[in-house]
Design a protein that fits this description.
Blueprint (H helix, E strand, L loop, with lengths): L2 H11 L8 H18 L3 E4 L2 E4 L8 H8 L10 H9 L2 H11 L3 E2 L14 E2 L3 H11 L3 H10 L16 H37 L1
Antiparallel strand pairs: 1-2, 3-4
Helix pairs in contact: 1-2, 1-6, 1-7, 2-4, 2-7, 2-8, 4-8, 7-8
Length: 202
């Protein structure tokens, strides 16, 4: 299991108010993949640039896909650019991968037995492992979850105490990207409201 898979399982398993948005979760998953690639020594960071190294070992499909999509020409891609590019549609991709592996199920709704309900983690060792990391507030997983808006807002920065500057850089970039996404949504909401007001006045 990878940090990205654990994050996806925690997101499905943890009540959040408001509900976790796919955009924020996708950015956090892209950050989780980058951290997984660093742990696999498939990439390193040169300041804020993602520098490819050796392809990752193992058979985790989305992680290998992430590695194959790395920009391999200089100047290398920035962490921020990686998050926005790789994050596009990543929540749906991880959900589909977990479903195909039997790690996530869709129980039928009681009233409409022919219609599948929302996805939930299956009772597997993968779910237990993710839950253990979450319960212990492991800093990397907790930091990514906080950025995505999973669970209650922590009283202090979950990444406090991390000694790997590369991981700290990625977590900070995820938080910045999520803030930027929120600002874009707010601007669009204001513009849409102003547009509606113009039409009401006509």
């Amino acid at each position: 299991m990878t940090t990205a898979q654990d994050l996806m399982l925690v997101a499905l398993d943890t009540p959040s108010t408001p509900p976790v948005a796919q955009g924020e979760l996708s950015l956090a998953l892209a950050g989780a993949e980058l951290i997984d690639l660093m742990e696999a020594e498939a990439v390193t960071l040169d300041e804020h640039r993602v520098v490819p190294e050796m392809p990752p070992a193992g058979n985790e499909g989305l992680l290998r896909e992430a590695a194959s999509s790395l920009v391999r020409q200089t100047p290398y891609e920035s962490v921020e650019d990686w998050l926005w590019r790789r994050g596009r549609g990543l929540t749906a991709a991880h959900l589909a991968a977990l479903e195909s592996e039997g790690l996530v199920t869709r129980p039928h709704a009681r009233r409409l037995s022919f219609r599948a309900g929302p996805p939930v983690p299956a009772e597997t060792s993968a779910r237990s492992r993710a839950a253990d990391r979450w319960a212990s507030r492991e800093p990397v997983l907790a930091g990514l979850a906080a950025a995505a808006g999973i669970g209650e807002k922590p009283a202090e920065d979950p990444a406090t105490g991390l000694t790997d500057d590369r991981v700290v850089t990625v977590l900070a970039a995820v938080h910045d990207a999520v803030m930027e996404l929120g600002a874009v949504r707010q601007r669009r909401g204001i513009e849409d409201a102003a547009f509606d007001n113009v039409w009401r006045a006509v």
